[in-house]
Amino acid sequence: IELRELAVVFQEILKRAALVAHHPIQREHLSIRERMSQILGNLSENKEAKFVSLFSVNEGKMGVVVTFIALLELLKQALIELFQEQPFSEIHVKAVQTL
Hints:
about 100 residues; alpha+beta
């Protein structure tokens, strides 16, 4: 191998390395408790909502999962109800009225 060939290959590697830019990525902190509060706030204003309307695909998979877990927790605590008017129709969510 000649020095010149080695230098050419090294330059190609440097060019490829320059294409890979490192960007600091910070995770957005998504809280299930906060999402539960958001859902209940939405339901207190609108009384009921379509199930799918509570999810924001802009938040990615993590946001969808956090919202789903928040809904399950609200169901477990009997703070919301899910219902359908007929089989295979749209699912709706409503807040349970407390006395």
